[in-house]
Request: fold
Amino acid sequence: MQVSMRVKRYDPELKENKSWWQGYKLGIHANATILDALIKIREEVDGSLALRCACRASICGSCGMRVNGRARLVCKTRLEEIIQKDGELNIEPLANHSVIRDLVVSVDSFFSKIKEITPYLTPKSEPVTGEFIASNESMENLLKSMNCIMCGVCVSDCTVLEVDKKFIGPAALAKAWRFVEDPRDDEKSQRISYLNDTEGGIWDCTRCMQCVEVCPKDVAPMDRIMEMRETAIRLGHKNSPGYRHSETFYRSVKKHGRLDETLLAISSAGWTNIPRLIDLIPIGFKALIRGKLPPIIPHKAEKKEAIKNIYVKVEKEDE
Reply:
């Protein structure tokens, strides 16, 4: 099988044009993976190509890259599958990471986010004898997050991290869920309080589903984040911009059939949070100048009652 592929190169030692696309052509077996092709290029075509890999079995997580704009583990991604689907093959380093050289990225920011969530058990006392025991049921539940191989693929495709580097991120928040849910940990309330109140915590996820779609181990980080939001609400953490935003969004659509954007902005900030409301004034003026200021009195959807009936049905199912 003849393959043509483009690789995003980066050389930090160049003074200008440090990154560029370089094309390669090679013959390789149809069942080969993208990692197989990259290793063949490095060994037989261009020894200067830098990439990172280890196990070649989707265990170590070191070969995360972007393939045609989507993050993947290239050791489990077959050439034939991508070429038949997209007709082209463009390989880049993971996004939302700083690039060291070519396809090799730094993991410093990734692990700094992991450290932020206190990634270890914090029991208040030691067992009298033996060790802490967790039930089979609880361990089966924890496997959702424990399957994470720390590959950074979800971080690469996170749309929030593209614009907000303070966001803790899907990988670290999924790891936080693992300790929140562990029955051997005694800091559940404190963990949830921190993730609820801190900037970049559980309420900053926009539910774009990208982390769920690209995760190679089905950890589903977004689902774990949503579960921690529900836990925060059950524990009474309702005085936060994130909760107010979510609740106002819910009630607004239920009432009008569509979102009242003006109410959403004010309510999320907090009616008594004068400094934050003042910060919104310049944003309002810009929206007014550009003709994007939402109406003071919200429009109602034509099929408002039909939307309200959906709410009624879902709320009955949740009772």
Notes: Residues 108-234 form a domain with the Fumarate Reductase Iron-sulfur Protein; Chain B, domain 2 fold (CATH 1.10.1060.10). DSSP finds 13 helices and seven strands in the chain. The chain has a mean pLDDT of 92. The longest strand covers residues 2-10.
